[in-house]
Give the backbone structure.
Amino acid sequence: MNAYAWRGRNQRGEVITGALDAESEDAVADHLLATGVTPVAITRKSASATAPTGGGWQALRAAPVDLHDLLLFSRQMHTLQRAGVPILRALAGLQASTSKRSLTLLLEDLRAALDQGRELATAMARHPRVFGAFYVAMIRVGEMTGRLTEAFGRLAEHLEFEIDVRERVKQALRYPCLVLVAIGIALVVINIFVIPTFATVFAGFKAELPLMTRVLLGFSAWMLRWWPLLLAAAIGAAWGVKAWLATPQGRYRWDRLKLRLPIAGPIVLKATLARFARSFAMASRSGVPISRAMTVVAQTVDNAFIGERIEQMRDGVERGESLSRCAAAAGVFTPVVLQMIAVGEETGELDTLLVEIAQMYERETDYAIKGLSSAIEPVLLVVIGALVLVLALGVFLPLWDLGQAAGGRSR
């Protein structure tokens, strides 16, 4: 199969270009005519021309496709599909209008896969870093049921919620993180520059120093002496934690620990359950069987502990148990949510009530995030107060004692 570059006109007379893998020029022309494009020129590309413009180095330097790009892509595809634009023409238009290198390469690969006869979901599955399991599953269901436009619309709403939650969490944590960084820098500066200077002053008086001062001086001397090993140990610990989190067992334990944290744990739980309810509602509305939907949703909640609970719910449903009973056995839902799930099963409006559950958890998540800064501020004040107290007792108390002693000798 050879690569061909083509130029043609669409039904509105606009000139469009692209590339296609085919057996011959006639096959390229037949494919273009079938998609509503009148070919003007078809040329065979050389082996070097098939590589993306700019080379592999520019491809490596290009910024990756993020959630904002995926949200914009989903909205644009929803609009184009609703207007009746064929998928190939829609992808070609988006590729011509985008200025982001990585997104251009992605759209080019999707078009090439569709030109070769692959399904859109199959083409997206080749890019797992961009299109997650839930995204691919929703696109596949949309293709099978003929509701691809609706699938893109619901995925856009889902991604908008994900981005909104992440941005609000970042905004709430920005101030505490800055304070912690400032405290860390202050401690390094004090231990490297301030305390050694005071140590020289104290040594000149040859007086017995308070316990807190001796502790500070000893800690500063220890850091100055062993800082290379401390830096290496910190890097090694960070690498070890990252490697441990990459294992299934480490990821499971960390995700379970996140849910038990004093302040952030309830927020993580509510946001995860909101993601589960909305994803499950989207899959249910699209006609996905419950067991299949729960399998896909378990991979998209971004929490191994909650994902395992969802898989346990799926196993119970496959054994013939009711969804409400399996949800109660999972132990992660509130009584109100369990009651809503039971009513949804009895009335056949499970997808509608799942949307209401998602909205309820989203409101609770929003309220909790708004109060996150106010909940962290007392902890920061306690930490800062403790550090100031230690420094005051360790540095200024001996100066006060030495000043009093010098005043007594002068009298």
User: Anything to note?
Assistant: Residues 148-205 form the longest helix (58 residues). The longest strand covers residues 2-9. The CA atoms of residues 243 and 259 lie 21 Å apart.
